[in-house]
Design a protein that fits this description.
8 strands, globular, AB_hydrolase_fold, Thioesterase domain-containing protein, Thioesterase
Length: about 200
């Protein structure tokens, strides 16, 4: 399941005209369930997932653009409190994101706006986060040089990168758990068996 959060929607516009909506349609076309939300509804999105039977068994990826980057990080934190890992969290020109929760397995921080509309903030690890944050300068992906914060939301090359980072081979990309995931999710650490020598 892929959850996407659009940026702040200008007056008179709708989420349905955003680049994240286009991305949602492309992911659905590949056969994977995807939903797009206004960034204000990150808690409702998380609660919708948690209300589903077998929610803990569903591979989840999340991405957010601009203010949606903050929503994506808060969504991941809400899942952490329920003991659910996030396979990939991708923040796309994130505006004031929360620290990355320790249940996130793969983190991608896309940035690269030029000019006066530099609004993004670099992702920072949260408490107990033991993974790595991959930094990606999306301006290098743009063939037509659209490097501004607003223009990138509909930049085809950047959106393709986001899609490929989240899904592949008809499913959500699976990532290896970071070293501290079990403790983060409140799960018992795997017990190690100790060989004992027979008494002589």
């Amino acid at each position: 399941m892929v959850y996407l959060f659009a940026g702040l929607t200008p007056m008179g516009d709708t989420v349905a005209r955003s680049g994240m909506y286009t991305l949602t349609q492309n992911i659905r076309a590949s056969g994977i369930r995807a939903e797009v939300y206004n960034p204000a509804y990150w808690r409702a999105a998380a609660d919708d997932l948690l209300a589903q039977p077998g929610a803990a068994e569903v591979p989840v990826a999340v991405a957010g653009y601009s203010m949606g980057g903050e929503a994506a990080t808060r969504f991941a934190e809400r899942l952490r409190s329920a003991g659910i890992p996030v396979q990939t969290l991708l923040a796309f020109e994130a505006y004031k994101p929360a620290p990355v929760a320790c249940n996130v397995r793969r983190v991608i921080d896309m940035y690269g706006a030029a000019g006066p509309l530099r609004m993004s903030t670099r992702l920072q690890p949260g408490k107990a986060f033991t993974g790595e944050i991959e930094q990606v300068d999306w301006s290098k992906l743009s063939p037509d040089g659209r490097h501004d914060h607003l223009g990138v939301s509909k930049e085809p090359a950047a959106l393709r990168y986001v899609q490929n980072a989240l899904i592949g081979d008809g499913r959500v990309r699976m990532s290896a758990p970071p070293p501290g995931e079990a403790a983060c999710l409140g799960k018992p650490a795997e017990k190690q068996t100790v060989a004992t020598l027979p008494e002589s």
